[in-house]
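thought: fold this chain, then report.
action: predict
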Amino acid sequence: MLNRRHPTFQSNTLRAIAMRYWWVNQNQTYTTEVRGNFMWSPKANANGARNPFYDFMREVAVGDIVFSFCDTRIKALGVVTGPAQTAPKPDFGSAGSNWSKEGWYVPVYYCAFDLPIRPKDHMAIIGPFLPSRYSPLQLSGDGLQGVYLTVVPEPLANALIGLMGQQFYDALAVVTGFPIAPDLEEADDITFGPDMGPTFKDQLIKARRGQGVFRSNVLLTEESCRVTGVSDPKHLRASHIKPWKVANDSERLSGFNGLLLSPHIDHLFDKGYISFSNSQELLVVPEVKADLLEKWGIDPGTRVGDFNREQKSFMEFHRIEIFKGPWP
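observation:
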C-alpha cells in the first residue's frame, strides 16, 4: 500500500484534486473570510473600471487550491467548494467601507497553518518562479496592495509547497475532506416579490437552506452551537432566528438573524420547541423537556451565552411568534 506521506502519492493526489492554484490577499478580511469560509470581492474598482484581480473570481473552479496571504505570511490553505456567485457584501464591519455592496462570492473551506511561512524570507527560492504578469508578490517579497486574487503558476506552487513541508499536506487532507455542497435547486416554497432583482435571488435561495452568504455571515457572528458546544462548522446548521418565510430580504441574509446549531437542536428551535432568553437561559416546551432532553443528552440548565443587540431583537420575535411554550 502506498504511504499517504510518500511524495509520489502527494504529487498524484494534487494533480487529481486541483486544476489550479490561487493566491488571495486578505489583509483586511482574513479573519472574517477564513472564519466564514469564503472569498468576496467587488466586481470592479471604485471608479467602475474592470480589475483583473476581481475578474479572476469567476475563473476559480471546485477543487482549486487557495493560498491565503495576510500580514506578510501565508496563513491558511483553502479548497474552493463552489463557483463564483453574485452576492451582497458580507458583514466585514469597518473593512472595505468603500467597496460596492455587490460583488463576487466564492465558497472556500480553509485550514489555518500552525507555522505560517513568510515568503519574504525565502525569495531566493520563490523569486525565480514569480510570473511576469499578475504576480502575487514583488521581487523584494513584499505584497502588492492592488492584488486580491491571482493565479499561482504550478512551478511557484511547488516552491511554496516545498517550503511549507508536511503541514501543507496535513492541511490539504483537512480541506479536501470537507464535503462539497451539491448544486441547489429552487424549492417550491420559495417565492420572490415583483421588485426582486437578480442580484440577490440566488443567495436568497441558498439562505432558505442556511447556505451561501447567509451561512458565512452567521459564521462571522457565532462560534459554536449554543446548546451542545459543537464548534466544527461542518457539523452545524445555520438556522434563521426570525424564520425565512416571514423575514424581509435583508433579514434573510443577515448574520445576526442566525445561529449555528447542531441538527437536533436546529429541529427543536425551528419548530418552536425551544428558544433562548435574554438572560442566557434555555427555554423548553414542557412536553419536550419531559421526553426528549434526557434522551438527547440536553441539559435544561445550560447557559447559552449572551446575544448582541441585533440578535436580541430577532430572539424576541422568536419567543413571541415561534416558541410554543411559556416564557418569563
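thought: worth noting. Residues 240 and 258 are 4 Å apart (CA to CA).
final: C-alpha cells above.
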